[in-house]
Specification:
Structural class: mainly alpha
Number of strands: 0
Number of helices: 3
Shape: rod-shaped
Strand content: under 5%
Helix content: over 70%
Largest sheet: none
Distance between the termini: 102 Å
Radius of gyration: 32 Å
């Protein structure tokens, strides 16, 4: 039985080699190094385009403080009239 499997494998080995070479040329499979490089590129792009959640929360708190101060100033101006 093993002999028959090996014979079939040898018979189809040129086709298997051609298919594997096609995959390598078309970069169907990536190496861990390529994957890590792409991951770093994506992370850098994200850092450039998006704000972190911590920064967003801080900015939101600052806006709330500014709104409160503006409301106080508005109330003072209305009381003066």
């Amino acid at each position: 039985m093993k002999g028959k499997i090996m014979e079939k494998f040898i018979e189809y080995s040129p086709i298997i080699i051609v298919i594997l070479m096609f995959f390598v040329q078309q970069k169907i499979f990536v190496t861990p190094e390529q994957l890590e490089k792409k991951h770093r590129e994506i992370m850098e792009e994200i850092e450039e385009k998006f704000v972190s959640k911590i920064s967003f929360v801080d900015l939101k708190e600052q806006f709330s403080e500014v709104k409160e101060k503006i409301d106080k100033i508005y109330d003072l101006l209305i009381d003066l009239k």
